[in-house]
Design goal:
There is one protein chain. This protein is of the alpha/beta class. The chain has a single domain, classed as Glucose-6-phosphate isomerase like protein, domain 1 (Rossmann fold), CATH 3.40.50. Helix content is 48%, strand content 11%. Strands 2-1-3-4-5 form a 5-stranded parallel beta sheet, with helices on both faces. The N and C termini lie far apart (71 Å).
Length: 222
């Protein structure tokens, strides 16, 4: 019996030839795309931080005062922005620099039972507002992350926080949506690219975490 080789199972068959329908890239073309994205995010961050440096400093001074007087920070977001909210929380609660003290920060995105109960029994747009009404108090802080600035559950929560007497902080993108209207400090990344907005938000949360500690008298070591 003669065995016929299956070309599809042969790892060496058609090496270097892309499957039908896929583009073929020339030498250095993909590396060029990598560098284009690096230039885009670098230029965007330079623009954003140049335009917002003074407001970031003012926000961090207000946050430091709130922590000093016993305030807590609550963070929230949806999808990738919920991961940024959790990231922010762990930076404050478990500082990457050992000598810096932890500061009370709670991510409202992590309790699946609470989130699904409120979303099922009331409305998904209330999943964070209801938590803040139970947990927040005057002098606390609420920080919402939304790449569009239009997330109903974030904006409702920020409005609820204002009514409680909390400081409200927003991370947004595009034109900011409705978020600037419910924030004491709103930081809008001027881009329609969700990855570029998120990359800038991630740098912003690191900058703000560091600056709050420096304002509170910790060593400026980063």
């Amino acid at each position: 019996m003669t065995l016929i080789a299956d070309k599809q199972s042969d790892p060496g068959a058609g090496a270097g030839v892309p499957p039908s329908g896929r583009p073929a890239f020339g030498p250095g073309e993909l590396a060029g795309k990598v560098m284009r994205q690096c230039r885009e995010v670098t230029a965007l961050k330079e623009q954003f931080f140049s335009e917002n440096a003074e407001k970031i400093a003012a926000c961090c001074q207000a946050m430091a005062r709130a922590f000093d007087t016993g305030g807590k920070l609550f963070s929230m977001g949806n999808g990738g922005s919920s991961c940024d909210a959790i990231h922010l929380s762990v930076e404050f609660m478990h500082p990457i620099i050992e000598k810096r003290p932890p500061l009370p920060t709670i991510a409202l995105t992590t309790d699946m039972a609470i989130l699904t109960a409120i979303g099922n029994d009331q409305d998904f747009s209330m999943i964070y507002a209801q938590q803040l009404k139970m947990l927040g108090k005057p002098g606390d802080m609420a920080l919402g992350v939304s790449t569009s600035g239009k997330s109903a559950n974030i904006n409702r929560a920020l409005q609820a926080a204002r009514e409680i007497g909390m400081m409200t902080i927003g991370y947004a993108g595009r034109d900011g949506g409705r978020m600037p209207g419910v924030c004491d400090f709103c930081f809008v990344v001027p881009s329609f690219s969700i990855p570029r907005i998120q990359e800038t938000h991630e740098t912003l949360l690191h900058v703000m975490w560091d600056l709050v500690h420096v304002i509170r008298g910790e060593e400026d070591v980063i």
